[in-house]
Structures are given as C-alpha cells and as structure tokens.
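step=encode ok
step=design start
structure_in=
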C-alpha cells in the first residue's frame, strides 16, 4: 500500500494538524452559543421518530439511574496510562493531558456551564471509578455504572480508511493480520452511526446531569 503524500491525504485518516486546527477554531465560538441552543436540540430529539433508539443507546453508554454527588475536592493526578481529573470544566486545559482528549471533551462540555465540576478520566482505563466519571472504555461487568462512556480520542480510534485494495486480492501470507483488521473494521463500522449520531450531544444531556455538580 502506497505511503505517499497523496495516499495520506485521500486515505480517510485526518491529519493531526488539521484536527487540532479545527479544534482551536471551534473554541473561537462562545460557549454561550451552545448553551442557548441546548433546549432546542433536546426538543428536536423528542420530535424524532427514532427517539426511543437514541435514548436506548444513551442509556447503554451512561447507565446512571440516580444522582450521585462527586467528592468535594480537587484532584489532578497523572497515572501511567490515564489521568484523573476532578475539577471544574473550565480548568481542563489542552496541556492537562493529550490535546485530543481536550477537544473531544469540549465537544460535549461546552453545552454546559463551565463552572460545573466533572470527574474525567482520559486515557486507557482498566477499572471502574469510585464515583461517576467520564471515560472512553469500561469493564465488561454488571457493576460498571460509574463508567460513563464518551467518544474520546476519536482521532485515533475512529478512523475509517479508504483502502483501494480489495480484501480478497491481498497476499494470503498476511491472512491472519487481514482477518484481525477486517474484524476490527467490522466492529468499528457497526458503531460508526451510533457514536456519530447528530443528536448524541442532546441525548447525552438526559443522563450527564447526574455526573455533574455545581461548585
């Protein structure tokens, strides 16, 4: 497969520089613009014929059923593969952790009051938090409600390449790897429409309020 500049531009994988540039340009839009539009977005969800399906997906990613108060403390702790952040939304900076996690969080957080406190654990999380937290992955077990899954680090994990080489024309010696990546492509494509739903942010509001607190 060609690794030329032309292929990189047409492969479907977004260059990091453009991703970050887009993120900084979006920050030029005042947050109040999104907060004002929040109610109208929710109203649009209620009027959609697939409203039940949207809330079904939301209830899967955010399993919180009742309010839980976050600890009255401030925590900024860097671990080996993740970061524990317990503070106001406004205090999470691009330099706090990887910039990709900052912009992914802002896509959702800017619809809310920046004075609200959140528990945010970006990175590779292999445990269930002690209190409700926003994460990109959670353990496959029953008692995992405190892990509220959000589409994070999408620049790395949600890439849909435009592969010009048909699968069945690939070299058989690479069959094991081809099957592995074909399975990964199938799983990702299955969730592509779910995680990129245009009203995901509005639906998230229905459950996110239980993991936010004023302070």
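sequence_out=
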């Amino acid at each position: 497969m060609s690794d030329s500049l032309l292929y990189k531009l047409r492969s479907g994988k977004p260059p990091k520089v453009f991703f970050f540039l887009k993120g900084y340009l979006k920050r030029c839009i005042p947050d109040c613009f999104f907060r004002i539009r929040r109610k109208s977005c929710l109203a649009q969800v209620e009027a959609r014929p697939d409203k039940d399906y949207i809330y079904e997906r939301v209830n899967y990613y955010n399993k919180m059923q009742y309010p839980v108060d976050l600890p009255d403390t401030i925590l900024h702790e860097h671990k080996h593969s993740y970061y524990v952040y317990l503070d106001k939304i406004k205090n999470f900076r691009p330099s706090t952790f990887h910039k990709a996690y900052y912009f992914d969080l802002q896509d959702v957080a800017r619809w809310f009051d920046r004075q609200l406190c959140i528990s945010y654990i970006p990175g590779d999380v292999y445990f269930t938090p002690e209190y409700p937290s926003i994460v990109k992955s959670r353990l496959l077990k029953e008692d995992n409600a405190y892990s509220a899954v959000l589409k994070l680090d999408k620049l790395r994990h949600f890439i849909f390449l435009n592969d010009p080489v048909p699968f069945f024309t690939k070299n058989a010696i690479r069959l094991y790897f081809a099957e592995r990546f074909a399975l990964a492509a199938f799983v990702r494509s299955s969730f592509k429409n779910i995680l990129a739903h245009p009203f995901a942010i509005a639906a998230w509001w229905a459950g996110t309020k239980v993991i936010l607190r004023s302070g």
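step=design ok
step=annotate ok -> The first helix runs from residue 5 to 10.
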